[in-house]
Amino acid sequence: MARLTNEIHARWTWWTVAGAALSVVLLVWLVAAPLVEAQTGKAKARPKTVSPNEMKKLDVRMDDVQKSFIKDTASLIRDFEEAGQPERAKLLLEVLLKLDPKNDSIRKKIDDLNDKILDQSEFEYELDVSKPWVQVGVVTGGKLARITAEGDYKFDAAGKLTADGVPAQDPANDMITGVPMGTLMGVVMPANPQPNRTNNGNPNKPPPFAVKSEYEWTPKQDGVLLLKLNFPAGTKCTGKLKLKISGMLKAA
What is the pTM assigned to this prediction? Predict the structure, then answer.
């Protein structure tokens, strides 16, 4: 397995270096060509006239290159999977999908790899619903994450209300508007707060979102995931929810 992993790493490195080298060559050519023409004063050459037979040969060569590329890429994807590197396999599939956006087989394979990636990082967490916001995990921006919740709980509402209804001024304690009452909800507090970033006048406080019994999303930035039930302040909840959390590190 170590030998296979080294071989895959070498092939991956070759692909990366080759791609970078090709990009540099193309960039140099695009920049240098106009300068050379300007310095030499030569007019642009007219496109070469290609006969139908020659064009057919070019099309055949293009098909051969495409088939070879797909074959080599498919082999590399399979090797990455066998080496326990589904994220790298997914990266290559996403490249293929850009070349062929309507390919449902590639999309399905990416979905399968997403499940495999999430399963590899899954951990269980027992959420005490009597507590306020609880830190449960550390998410990575751009990386798929998933939460599933099972179980039930009891609640006892207390306190007085006015005609204005349930207070919703303080996200830390009050009920969150836009999220159904009693719903499991979450919020990702950014690891690196942005000084000028605001949410309804609250600096660096992103809006909570409904998790319910299952939620899958891709966080936009690194941060800490917090969970709680959406109830007004003063509500007493008893019970525990069993969570399965994937795509993130468990909070210390």
Answer: 0.65
CA 153 to CA 169: how far, in whole Å?
A: 26
Digit-coded pLDDT (tens) for 166-210: 777 777 777 898 899 999 999 999 987 665 554 554 545 789 999
Low-confidence ranges of the chain (pLDDT < 50): 1-32, 35-36, 198, 201, 203
97, 103, 104, 107 alpha-carbon torsion, rounded to 10°: -10
* Per-residue pLDDT at 36: 47
Structure tokens given for 114: 């997403």
pLDDT digits 0-9 by tens, 147-172: 999 999 999 987 777 787 777 777 77
- Is the Cβ–Cβ distance between 149 and 194 less than 8 Å? no
**What residue segments make up the domains of the chain, in order of their start?**
2-120, 123-250
The span from the CA of 92 to the CA of 58, in Å, is 26
Which residues lie closer than 8 Å to 169 by C-beta, 6 or more apart?
none
Residue with tokens 């609250």: 202
CA dihedral over 63, 69, 72, 77, signed as positive or negative: negative
- What is the rounded CA–CA span in Å between residue 132 and residue 227? 8
| Distance, first Cα to last Cα, the chain | 33
Check residue 91 and give left, alpha or beta (phi > 0: left; psi -120 to 50: alpha). alpha
Range 123-250: architecture per CATH: Sandwich (2.60)
